[in-house]
Structure formats: C-alpha cells, structure tokens
Amino acid sequence: MLLEPYERDLRLFDYPLMTYSLRHEVIRRGYRTTVKTILGDYERYAEVFGRGLVTLLPRPEIERRAHRWSRASGGRSQGSPAPSQAHTAAQSAR
Predict the structure, then answer these.
(1) Residue 65, Cα to own-chain centre: how many angstroms?
(2) Phi/psi-derived region of residue 6, left when phi > 0, alpha when psi is between -120 and 50, beta in every other case
C-alpha cells in the first residue's frame, strides 16, 4: 500500500538526510502523516490491511501511541536549530 504524503510534506523530500535533526524531522512528520491518514479512514484501512493478513491495533491504542510519541518528540534540544533553519543552512553550504 502506498500512502500519498500531504502537500505540505512534499518539501521534506528536499531535506538533506545526512543531518540528524532533519532526518529525525522527516521521520516524525512521516509518522504523523501516516497516523492521521489511517485514523482519518480507519475502517477502510483496517479492511485493506486485513486482506493482507495484517491486523491494525485498535483505534484508541493508535491514538494513545501517537499522542505519546508526539509529546516525546515535541521538545528540541537547546542547541539544535529548527528544521527550516538547518535546511536553509545546508542548502547555502552546497
């Protein structure tokens, strides 16, 4: 199954993934987009995955894990720049 990224996530494909903070941001946003997409039409995705013998966790469990993960990654270390700043710096260094 292929899930289409949100339009605002398309710029993530231009991020240089050798930079840890940018790589982490791409993973975080990809995870959030995937969770939002699946939860947005949970019953349909549960059926589609079920045809391939893949069982989704119950919806409340996915929501709980997504909330916990977003809280855990919400704080950035003091010294690391925001992804947009680091991306701009990486582009200007090219």
Answers:
(1) 13
(2) beta
| AA letter at 38 | I
How far apart, in whole angstroms, are the C-alpha atoms of residue 63 and residue 80? 28
- 22, 15 contact by CB (below 8 A): yes
Per the model's pLDDT, the better-predicted residue between 77 and 27 turns out to be: 27
Render pLDDT for 32-74 as a digit per residue (tens, 0 to 9): 888 999 999 999 999 999 999 999 999 999 999 888 877 666 5
Q: pLDDT grade, residue 30 (50/70/90)? A: confident
Cα separation of 23 and 36, whole Å?
20
CA-based torsion, 78, 69, 22, 89: positive or negative: negative
Name the 3-class secondary structure at 45: helix
Structure tokens at 46: 């549960």
DSSP letters of 15-47? Answer: S-TTSHHHHHHHHHHHHHHHHHHHHHTHHHHHH
